[in-house]
Amino acid sequence: MGSLIALGNKKALDLEDVPQLYKDDSVVGAFASLKERIESDGGSVSEVTAFKLAKALFFTAWKEILLTAFLALSYTAASYVGPYLIDSFVQCLSGQGDYRNQGYVLASVFLVGKIVECITQRQWFFKLQQIGMRMRAAVVAMIYNKGLSLSCQSKQGQTSGEIINIMTVDAERIGDFAWYMHDPWLVILQVSLALFILYRNLGLASIATLIATIVVMLLNFPLGRLQEGYQDKLMKSKDKRMKATSEILRNMRILKLQAWEMKFLSKIIELRKTEAGWLKRYVYSSALISFVFWGAPTFVSVITFGTCMLMGIPLESGKILSALATFRVLQEPIYNLPDTISMLVQMKVSVDRIVAFLRLDDLPDDVVKRLPREASDTAIEIVDGSFSWDSSSPNPTLRDVNLKVDRGMKVAVCGTVGSGKSSLLSCILGEVPKISGTIGLCGSRAYVSQSPWIQSGKIQDNILFGQEMDKEKYDRVLEACALKKDLELFSFGDQTGIGERGINLSGGQKQRIQIARALYQDADIYLFDDPFSAVDAHTGSHLFKEVLLGHLSSKTVVYVTHQVEFLPVADLILVLKDGRITQAGKYSDILNSGSDFMELVGAHKAALSAIDSKASESENGSTVSKENGDMSNSNGIEQKGQLVQEEEREKGRVGFSVYWQYLTTAYGGALAPLAVLAHSMFQILQIGSNYWMAWATPVSADEEPPVPPMTLIAVYVVLAVASSLCILGRSTILAAIAYKTATLLFNKMHMSIFRAPMSFFDSTPSGRILNRASTDQSAVDQQIPYQLGATAFSIIQLLGIIAVMSQVAWQQYYIPAARELSRLIGVCKAPVIQHFAETISGTSTIRSFDQQPRFKETSMKLTDAYSRPKFHTAGAMEWLCVRLDFFSSITFAFSLFFLISFPGIDPSLAGLAVTYGLNLNMIQAWVIWNICNLENKIISVERILQYISIPSEPPLVIEESKPDPSWPSHGEVVIDGLQVRYAPHLPLVLRGLTCTFEGGKKTGIVGRTGSGKSTLIQTLFRIVDPTAGRITIDGVDISSIGLHDLRSRLSIIPQDPTMFEGTVRSNLDPLEEYSDEQIWEALDKCQLGDEVRKKEKKLDSAVTENGENWSMGQRQLVCLGRVLLKKSKVLVLDEATASVDTATDNLIQQTLRQHFFDCTVITIAHRITSVLDSDMVLLLSHGLIEEYDTPARLLENKSSSFAQLVAEYSERSKEQY
């Protein structure tokens, strides 16, 4: 430890400076032995009970546990040497020693006792922390592995927020519990030793002491139970809040676009109110408990001395001092009892929660049979399969599925929205619970999901996905996925860091990276869930040719698609409707055999004929000049620096301002001095009462007492009662400060997060924000106020004894290292949480690639990185304490020799000094421990304050310039010289656009991926503010009005359809502005009315997290419903038709034409057909306007880029590959 602390004194420590862990302490060793234990105990992890888990945890570290038990035992024995010998010491000083030099012998015994006490205690504490760390790591690994194997059903019952809480909070609890492991039996031992000493001094009066002690301990149990209830409720309400927070952070962009963020903030504040209600009860019940404990020694001593009076046992100062010293030592076990009890309680709650999680159903391994390679040519075979996501619902998701796919076949799956296409692929992966039938697979598989799952990290790591790098193959894959060009645009190429969930990539890029990941795995069977819809027409056909027909020509491929032009190539087409395969066969066979397929194809044909008719109308038009923009950066967020920066941590001392802000948050800090005053009074009264007892009693039995016995006891009682009242006052004040401060900090932090600009969310992984909202907020709720209190009080106590000066030097030397270690703990915790959160959202992808072992390994590495600074913090603490303890023991011994060598000091006062001196090292260590711990914990406040000061967006409402209530009445959008960049150090994304979207006209915006289409829309909603130029709507400059005024008057159907947990009603109308009739009307218009009427709860039907229980297409329709309710004059469609089939697409277009005929509609489209019937087409290229005219005019000029795009699309559709 010495060298690490010395280094910490020279510079701020980084993770590299912290030594690696010994193999038994690292998670790999710990987890293996824990798992082995549980399995040898009979049964797998998912059958574990709370008792079995506790037993297994004990056996993973039983050697260390027994060693610490022995250390604790010797510590307890040594701590009673002092009280036992005080009486003889006083006698000896008053000249009644048993033999010569007895004083020196006693002093030496005192010293030896102290030193033993010091060494055993430090070793014992250190070993306990080590055990705790091991257990925590092993449990975290277990939870992580469980998260990987959960079935989808269990996952719906547990949202990711709850699961993450189990990993962060509950596993942490298990580690903390190790501290308290030996306390229950130590209490009994300590009490019995104390009684033995009292009996030797005071005879039968010690029986009274026993009774008093038991009464105090019993008082504790009802209080402990009360607190357990509160703790449990507190955790439950915290889960709810974390779940809501994580969902809101994920969908912040939508909330900002719809101007809903304040409504959702108030939801979180509501949830926090319930949580705070429990918190308040919890802190006040803690105050009561602490009153009982501080009052305990005084109460016990009053009873004991009273009994002596009544029984006529003579009180001599030596015996009284011995008794007082004993009560002091006794104070510790009694004082720790509530902690121990509440810790046992918390541990039990946590173990129960962890066990409940570990017992959830896993995905059954036997759903999919692996067929041997040699036996046949079959790649996939399903016989009479029925599958259901929800085993309780009467109608299964898929039924009567019979399917046989030979090796190397291409199978296309099509059907309308919600017909079960994605579920069919999930079945083949074995993700959907099977009701009946069999599935067989031959070979390895790769899967590309519909909504891309991208890990944060480098692009290259996402593509390799754990495989070795093979340059040639890697280049072929990039080529096939058309990623070469995109990578050239990133300044770091494939080493570019991707933000959380691929935030800095466009939808098409994410999809292509997913496809590249699948290709690189080189599997036998490929499952594609409509990956072509997120990319533009040109890229789509390129991907289809290169990937499906080129790269994968010899593999088995099953692809879901909405694009009819991809169907003719397939060897087998499956048409799904309502969970059944209604038609199957080749394109030409089924074209004539049934209606379902005809509908899909018919819709497509209609769209194509529209193109031909447009082209023929335009024979006499003007030509449009074509400018070529030079290549610029594609997607403004890739820059000369990475997007996601390292998490910031402050370096150096925690500023005084942090403490000051913390103290003055509640009631302007008025209560803090009161608490200190109350404690000082308590200390003075306590010393006074002990001094009174020592002075007012005779040294030996044959002297005359200075005051009559009744007066002696009466004064003592008065002093004792007064000191107890001071404690009650102090505890209550502390609780009030704690509660108020926690609430204020919470509200300020959340207000500032919700008002932060979008760029903050893009560059901050939600794990970091969640970490502030859970771990750091917990510390502020439950730990810091007590830590602050304890520090202040222990310092007062130390002053009440003596101030040992030179310890300050050690401490100054130690603190820099400890503080940085503690900050590292905070920074290393977020990656563990984030990795876990990512894993949970991508389980099906990870499982389909059979990559579970690799992810488990990564998680273990991250856990160890978190354990390292934690372990060394514990080491540093003990390093300091050992030095201090030795120092104070020597001071104490020195003063004893001094007392013996200079007779003539009043023996009873000398005795009193020794009584207090015995406690010196304990209190001094306690002070240091508290100061350091406080430094470590206050960092949570520092991290919260960091987030309170995020710069916020422009104001939501500007009173001076509120737009007219009817604005925008006409809907004319004028863009003038618009230039936009995402951050000051990034290149421009839009490089000077000027054009006008006329009111009530439909404008289509087209352009290749990365040409700035989405950026234009974001600027319209002021998610990013323009660098130069301006946008006006009906003559109002959008930069001059409040954000809410702007955003609530515009409508958007975003690219990723989002639904929130709640009901159908709350999803359509979160602000509760519309009546049920209006909502039903909107549902009917967007074709969801019947679907919702089918459900039993109608508008109150549940929507799970992220809307998982609705299909992609249905979610898209819900977004359409929101827009229909809002009826704005300006409507923006951001590729809204990307995840629906052509028939539904036509339906959406029709609805829009019908209900928005007089509105300005701006569409960003991938499907050329959706812009053909617009009034104007705007073609963007690299942030500049390349063409802006009516579609007919553009088509007529065969050399225009638009004409080329259309030609490409119709070519591709007519072409039979």
Automatic annotation (TrEMBL):
UniProt xrefs under InterPro entries: AAA+_ATPase, ABC1_TM_dom, ABC1_TM_sf, ABC_transporter-like_ATP-bd, ABC_transporter-like_CS, ABC_transporter_C-like, ABCC_6TM_D1, ABCC_6TM_D2
Cell wall biogenesis/degradation in keyword set: no
Location, primary (coarse class): membrane
Membrane topology: Multi-pass membrane protein
Domain ABC transmembrane type-1: 66-346, 674-936
PROSITE patterns: ABC_TM1F, ABC_TRANSPORTER_1, ABC_TRANSPORTER_2
Membrane spanning residue stretches: 65-86, 106-126, 177-198, 204-223, 282-305, 713-739, 788-810, 886-902
Record keywords, A-Z: ATP-binding, Membrane, Nucleotide-binding, Repeat, Translocase, Transmembrane, Transmembrane helix, Transport
Organism superkingdom: Eukaryota
SMART domains: AAA (SM00382)
Catalytic activity: ATP + H2O + xenobioticSide 1 = ADP + phosphate + xenobioticSide 2
A cellular component term, taken from the record's GO annotations: membrane
Location(s), subcellular: Membrane
A Pfam family reported for this protein in Swiss-Prot or TrEMBL: ABC_membrane
Polar residues composition bias: residue spans: 618-636
Annotated region (Disordered), positions in chain: 612-636
EC number, UniProt record: 7.6.2.2
GO molecular function list: ABC-type xenobiotic transporter activity; ATP binding; ATP hydrolysis activity
Domain ABC transporter: 380-603, 975-1207
Protein family (similarity comment): Belongs to the ABC transporter superfamily. ABCC family. Conjugate transporter (TC 3.A.1.208) subfamily.
Name of the molecule in the record: ABC-type xenobiotic transporter
Lineage: Eukaryota, Viridiplantae, Streptophyta, Embryophyta, Tracheophyta
